[in-house]
Amino acid sequence: MRLVLGNLFRHSPFQSTLKHAEKVAQCGPLFLNAVQAYFAGDRARFELLKEDIRENEAEADRMKRNIRGHLPAAILMPVDKSVFFSFLREADKVVDCIKNALYWMSYYRLGLPEDIQRDYVLLAKEVGDYLGFLPEMVQRGHTFFSSRMEQDREAVKEIIREIRFREKESDDLEKAMFIRLCADDSISPKTFFIMIRVVETTGDIADHLENSADMMRVMIAR
């Protein structure tokens, strides 16, 4: 006999996905603190925070593999499994990008003008704050899949709209930084190259979060 959706979701993979989303979101404040420590010249604190993020990335990756590996074949999901896995993959890539941005910064002591440092701290804060929407989106999605109420669906869509809006703001900050970097002839070629990679990788954080929101939009579509 076909199980009703409410009983089925007692073992919903979205419960574990929420824990994964919370792990990803924890990296937002750590990322900002690491960037601030770097530009303050506190290398020891930067390295400790970088290690914390590396551990979070490893734990989030373990959680992702566990969700994928322990999803019962017979489970009745209200969404296409391939879309669900795409959502999970994009959310997981967020932490990869945070880790990679900090690794780029660790390779060389970047000599940057203070105004560009401030611009990048602002970008890191924008992106870090942005990650807080991920657990909320997953939680509201879980509620909608359990209730199928239109008001719950609209609540998910509102979070998705906010994520898309914030991604555009991050994109604008990223482009402004490229312009500033290219216009400043005092920046050494090595610093310029590394900082371009850092900014690009930071922008990818927002891109992957928006991609996860797009997958959620597909999952809640009627």
UniProtKB/TrEMBL annotation:
Transmembrane segments: none annotated. It comes from the Bacteria. Pfam families: PhoU_div. Belongs to the UPF0111 family. This is TIGR00153 family protein.
